[in-house]
Amino acid sequence: MISADSYDNPWTFDDTPITSSDIGDYYGFVYLITNLKTNEMYVGRKYFWKLRKPKTKDKKRRVKSESDWKDYYGSCKRLLEAIADLGKQNFRREIISLHKTKGDVNYSEIKEQFKRDVLEKRDNNRKVFYNDNIMSRYFIVNNDSNRKISQKLKCPPIM
User: What is residue 71's three-state secondary structure?
Assistant: First the structure.
């Protein structure tokens, strides 16, 4: 029997599908999305809740509601293009860890991305992860962009 809270290609935690009734007081999660055809992966984070200001005169009040976490597939353009091409059924969505605060979610995402070496890990000279940055601060450095930056700075490229 399908529950009223079922959704397509559900997120799993310890191989168990997660529903709204499972999230309790968790703020968010760190996840791994895997392309089942190519084995490329993406590590990211998502919050279960969103806070918004209602259109009232009370500027300080915020309303908490459930986010779009059930339908979320990441923010990486290359990953989203692959999902559009191959279909959602060819991607596995796993929750790596659950967290009770926004800070813990953010810290754990970054820690997981560095631990898995998402920017540089290669398999047969092919990039393993879709991630192309961490925190919009740490980027993949390829030799071409490194040379261009070095030429602008008038210094030798880092190899």
Answer: helix
